[in-house]
């Protein structure tokens, strides 16, 4: 594969992966304006974020079998079409209930891009290269939390929050064109894969029975829920508690995303010397220490705006370090069922995100403590899952080695 082709594939797959995060982050600065227009509260508007997480989690399970059965592209096109229509619907929403439901449908569409891009990584690149490829995807994805809230803040300030969703619809259309003309058919349709409920469930169960999958997929999902907690709480934390406006909030969000991007790129360097399993364990230990320190400092009111930003930054650095390795190790045992495996991994991750964002939306009022407490608990549980789960893995597929061996 030529270098130009390699870069092109990374950009397109990264853009597809970034569609979901962009859809989450871009409308965050508009929470106060949306709440005012729909005659509700900022906390209530956060329920539209929870519904998005629920939709994208459920949609992962829908698209997994479809991608294995019909190939990667057709389900991707359908999903992006749904996304475009739902985005236009969100732009015209006049009630909170309508916005919540339309965000759910928008998520169902966008997750086709997420599942397809992850499955295509498994199709296009050797297993040993997957952590590096996922790290590069995270570099592209990392632009979304840098650009999305900043752009969203200015769009909301000058054109209104409705325009944000029109911009998202246009992005969906551009990504559809890029997928059509820039991506190869990486997986031939497999008529032997049934779409009946029993075979689908049986296929998912087969994936879940693989110790390497459930250990690293659920470790990553629980640890990653801290990110969704931060995303859901951030409008209330920064705009309500610390009283910054939507433009400043966008810049703060952009700065903090550098932590996650930096972690993913640091991971590429560390992989030259350490195994993915070692990086994940060390990162989770660090994440636990950071969140406990964050909780103690928040409890005693030792943090102001800048202290809060600093500790969130280091927390996101840990997330960026561990996530590519968790994804690579989770998918490594699968070739034929990569779509189903990536769907289950995404469903677990986003399902935990939905729960975390819902909880933080209920309890976050005028305090940072609920957000930090959820971050700390999720980090500790993730470390426990990793510690206990690794005992059941007999032969870890070493994605850092020069081997492309997979389990069937």
UniProtKB/TrEMBL annotation:
Primary localization class, coarse: membrane
Q: Which Gene3D superfamilies does the UniProt record give?
A: Multidrug resistance protein D (1.20.1720.10)
TM spans, by residue? 45-64, 76-94, 100-121, 133-152, 158-178, 213-233, 248-267, 279-296, 302-322, 343-363, 369-389
The segment(s) forming the Major facilitator superfamily (MFS) profile domain are 9-394
> Where are the coiled-coil regions?
none
Swiss-Prot/TrEMBL GO biological process terms: xenobiotic detoxification by transmembrane export across the plasma membrane
Query: What are the UniProt keywords, alphabetically?
Result: Cell membrane, Membrane, Transmembrane, Transmembrane helix, Transport
Q: Which GO terms describe its cellular component?
A: plasma membrane
Q: Which domain of life is it from?
A: Bacteria
What PROSITE patterns does this protein map onto?
MFS
In the bilayer, the protein is annotated as: Multi-pass membrane protein
Q: Where in the cell is it found?
A: Cell membrane
Q: Which InterPro entries match?
A: Efflux_drug-R_Bcr/CmlA, MFS, MFS_dom, MFS_trans_sf
Give this protein's Gene Ontology molecular function annotations.
sodium:proton antiporter activity; xenobiotic transmembrane transporter activity
Give the UniProt family note.
Answer: Belongs to the major facilitator superfamily. Bcr/CmlA family.
In Swiss-Prot or TrEMBL terms, this protein is called Bcr/CflA family drug resistance efflux transporter
What species is this protein from?
Flavobacterium kingsejongi
Q: What is the lineage of its organism?
A: Bacteria, Pseudomonadati, Bacteroidota, Flavobacteriia, Flavobacteriales
